[in-house]
Amino acid sequence: MHRSSIHDIGLLASDETFALESMRLEANSTTGVVSSESDLVLLFTQGDLQIITGDRSHSVSASAQAYINAGVSFEIIAGDSGIAYLIASCPGSALESSPSSDPKAVTGGVTILRTDRYDRFPDSGLVRGGMFYLDEGKVATYHSHDAAAEVFVFLKGDCDAKVDGETERFSADEVLYVPAEEKHELANVGKGRLEVWLTVTPNVAPSHTFYDEQTDGTWRRTTPRLDGLDSRPPSK
User: Fold this and answer.
1) Residue 228 domain-assigned (yes or no)
2) In this predicted model, what pLDDT tens digit does every residue of 83-107 receive, in sequence order?
3) Where in the sequence is the domain holding 34, given as residue range(s)?
4) What's the pTM value of the predicted model, to 2 decimals?
5) Domain C-terminal end among 55, 90, 116
């Protein structure tokens, strides 16, 4: 099972569709003006900051999330106490320095979202996701995603995550990466609501593949494939 922590600075998980990094900015420091060829999704876990684009400034306090369209130039400026955040580029792409005043007209911009409600960043062909909640004692349906990996960042609560028949316990600040087509479910085994931030890359349809449990304990998919590939045989 692929696990890491948001406190591990640097690359946490990646494949051909995305890269997730844990970042820090010291007090009153800046990323400079940057842009990416990929869609970006960010989770701010600590501190106050500003996100500045060519025509506006967003004041943000953790915990919060943001979605930034590919090609948009922006700058992140940390407040007096510094900031901690996760950034996923979808597909994986390094940030590149941009002119301080970019004359290009581009679609989209920066969308600021909350983490205390079921906010989702705008769907694109590259990424979908946002906040997910699971009430105490509840279990999410065992499923997988054709051609799409999923990353879970646990923010609050305790979770038993089952991936292709193996189960491990996850708590706040831990990260779980599930490769494409691996079956997985989350079970809230703690007190109170489980709070999770997630990304699925790319955003494919159908979004979920579901399974029926067989008498021998294996699972057979019930969602038809739309990509012409062979389905995996029944497995745990």
Assistant:
1) no
2) 999 999 999 999 999 876 566 666 6
3) 18-116
4) 0.94
5) 116
